[in-house]
Write a structure and sequence with these properties.
The chain has 254 residues and is α/β, with parallel strands linked by helices. It has 12 helices and 11 strands. It is elongated and about 60 Å long.
């Protein structure tokens, strides 16, 4: 794992001149709206960008409903790296320029490290695992959570799952709930489940698998367009591919 990250770091240094303010231009403070499930990857990429560019990032991580509110009724922001569901909201979409894809990620099932791994290899075994679990944790009030709820409905187990769901308010609550034994299994996007103390059992079966896409775009009224674009160029560059992949995500095409 460490070697690809070192290679990525070397590549980042190579593109540093292109990211740094030129001609005495001042460093900017960028206000970023970001999907809560991107916390792990952006808190690793963010300091690298700050180091090589001289700009400062202030990242607000939140759920899709709250990001829509932030984009439409909150304080000014410079760019967003958010679930595609934000762009599907007409009101929020009007506050962004044309997006590029940062990354995408599929859904999986995880258990605490060392716990028995249930069978989820087929749709029937996946359904049985969900029904047999004493407790399950995820984040219903999010783009990923909304999709998981549709999977439960499709399997005809939505009512059964309500009684055993330990709902989290932010993605950061999912891993601790497993580690502490508060929940038996977790279902969510794989980048959140790629964490110490838990193990991914596997992906959702193909019949119900889907990828959540995270586009990145400037705010239409940003006063820091050059610096904001530099950050988007940075997180969609080949220099960070290894880091994005290490978080369980597939880099976008830019």
């Amino acid at each position: 794992m460490k070697m690809p990250l070192l290679i990525a770091a070397a590549s980042i240094l190579a593109i540093a001149p292109a990211l740094s303010p030129s001609g005495g231009a001042r460093a900017a403070e960028l206000k970023v709206l970001a999907g809560g499930s991107l916390r792990s990857v952006l808190t690793e990429l963010g300091p690298e960008f700050e180091r090589v560019s001289g700009h400062k990032l202030v990242i607000h991580f939140d759920t899709t409903p709250n990001l829509i509110k932030a984009a439409t009724t909150g304080e000014p922001f410079d760019l967003g790296v958010v679930p595609i569901d934000v762009f599907r909201d007409d009101g929020a979409r009007a506050y962004f320029t044309s997006p590029v894809e940062f990354a995408r990620v599929g859904y999986g099932v995880a258990v605490r490290t060392g716990a028995p791994k249930p069978d989820i290899s087929t749709l029937d075994s996946f359904k049985k695992t969900l029904l047999d679990a004493k407790s399950i944790t995820f984040l219903p009030a999010s783009a990923a959570g909304a999709y998981i709820l549709t999977v439960f409905e499709r399997l005809g187990i939505d009512e059964a799952m309500k009684a055993k769901t330990i709902a989290q308010e932010q993605p950061t609550g999912i891993v601790p709930a497993l580690v502490k034994g508060d929940a038996e299994i977790a279902v969510f996007v794989n980048n959140v489940l790629t964490a110490p103390g838990i193990e991914i059992v596997g992906p959702f079966p193909p019949e119900v698998q889907q990828e959540l896409i995270f586009p990145a775009a400037l705010a239409v009224d940003t006063k820091e367009a050059s610096a904001a674009k530099a950050f988007i160029d940075f997180i969609t560059s080949s220099a960070v591919v290894a880091i994005v992949k290490a978080k369980g995500m597939t880099p976008g095409q830019g």
